[in-house]
Write a structure and sequence with these properties.
This protein has 77 residues and is mostly helical. α2 runs antiparallel to α3.
Length: 77
């Protein structure tokens, strides 16, 4: 989607949809997603609603990520 109000609105809807059953999908989007909108929505959702198991899983994959992708994890933690 091109940047703009519609993209922002969609990102906010996606962010608000996080729940324990789909937190893993948000984590995967954070780690492997491309695009700043996907990254920001996943970061905000996980930081707000991620539980201890999500935080532990993110910490576990941190060292295996390329250095330029590690900042995503740190923003959540």
């Amino acid at each position: 989607m091109p940047p703009g109000d519609a993209t922002l609105a969609l990102a906010q809807q996606i962010e608000a949809a996080i729940e324990p059953a789909n937190a893993l999908a948000y984590m995967e989007a954070l780690i492997h997603g491309e695009g700043p909108e996907v990254e920001r929505a996943a970061i905000r959702a996980l930081a707000r609603a991620g539980d201890a198991s999500v935080m532990q899983a993110l910490a576990a994959v941190y060292g295996g990520l390329a250095p330029e992708r590690r900042g995503r994890i740190l923003e959540v933690l």
